Amino acid sequence: MKYVIYARKSSEDEDRQILSIEAQIVELKEFAAKEKLEIVGPTFVETKTAKEPGRIKFAEMLSFLENGKADGILSWHPDRLARNSVDGGKIIHLVDREVIKSLKFPCFWFEPTPQGLFMLNIAFGQSKYFVDNLRENVKRGLRQKIRRGEWPGKPPIGYINNLATKKIEIDKNKATKIRKFFELYSTGNYTFQSLANWCHENKLTGFWDKPFSISSSQRTLQNIFYLGLMKYKGELHEGVHEPIISKKLFDKCQEVLKDRGKPQKMKKHSFDFLGLMKCPCSAAITAEKKIKKSGRTYIYYRCTKKKGPCPEKHFLRQEELLQQIKSHLQKVSLSSQDTERVLAELEKDENLAKEQAKTTVQNLKLEILELNQKLDKLLDLCLSNKLSQDEYTLKKEKFLNSKVEIQEKISDFEQKGLSWLEPAREFVLSLNKAEKILESEDRSEMTTFLKNIGSNHILQNRQLIFKPVNPYDLVAESPTGGEANLTLPIWQRHGESNPASVLEKHMS
Question: Which option is the CATH number for 2-145: 3.40.630.10, 2.30.30.50, 2.40.50.140, 3.40.50.1390?
């Protein structure tokens, strides 16, 4: 009787279990010599799991047997042949048809008798049970890791698996670059391709040192793992790993992604101040170029009249609009000298602010405690079937997002003092930015700046009605123009995170 050798390992990774194949073949050849079995044909070696049907070498071996080139199979154990009911059924069916006349295993007895087929069927069933049970045990282990806040797989770029502590830790070199990666995209000035180029220039690579692609850039920007959260099987979980970016920065990137996803209209002309203002009738303001008989070119801004009849019949020349814009910028500008003085005073207040923040931090920690209690109650409702899985997932995601925001506030208070301190610095620097924009006369920067500090700007009777948001409105409404910054009221240090705080104290 002629036999073929079949050896299989579970992993497709060339570096794993490679000795298992060698050991199987050596043991099988020694067993064949001992039992005086005739080995024919090639040795069929499979490097694929037997949990699912569809193994190529297994199919080739069965075809080899069906063509009458061999009478039986020599393998280490029945679980090498099949761990699923389909392949196990094929073997038994071929034995019934006497295509397979014999099966030999060094560690399992088989004879082609009803009793032998029954025992073989049991062996295949045990193999399938082992796989199914192992799968459930692995899933249970993964679920438990998730409950503990531990990611069960390979973490994203910027983190590493510490094999000694079995915890996910920050890769300091890549984490800094990942944070910069998010910051660049949040500006709205970078496309996925330009980000990929930046990664190449700064030697930021993905898994297995592969370069960042457009698709990997998008996946990275949408990965909530960098916030300290994890999404597993569609459900949001809180992670124990250290976040790399803030929720504020992540949300800003999502806004940019959303805006980039909207269809972009092709523009025939590029005008400096389009999109800055609207007409009182709520229609958009458009611009058009006029060439006089003298050859001189003028640009005018007017209502599009797309919302119906409009009382505004006036056109405003771009030169006049530019002067009005400069006037509004002047009202919210601060000189570099005054900027340095205010920032220096804010620095002195930082230590005092930290002390005053302790009470606020305690209150925020109480809010965290309340959220944890709500999450526990939510889980109880889900387990008692008083809440559907979809409702549970949705509410849990809402609570966890709130928890992340509060934790970031606590971090801000503990590291920087009160939450208003850093926004106050940014506010002062933005006032100084207005001064620099006036000096450079960069029209694109003018439009962007006015959009950022105000909303619903109206062009009415050839006048730009500028509507800055708080706290810029306090500055702009002062009759003393740029000097208004020196007499601002003292803004609250407590309550809402209003960036304006102690400017009068330091500037007057």
Answer: 3.40.50.1390
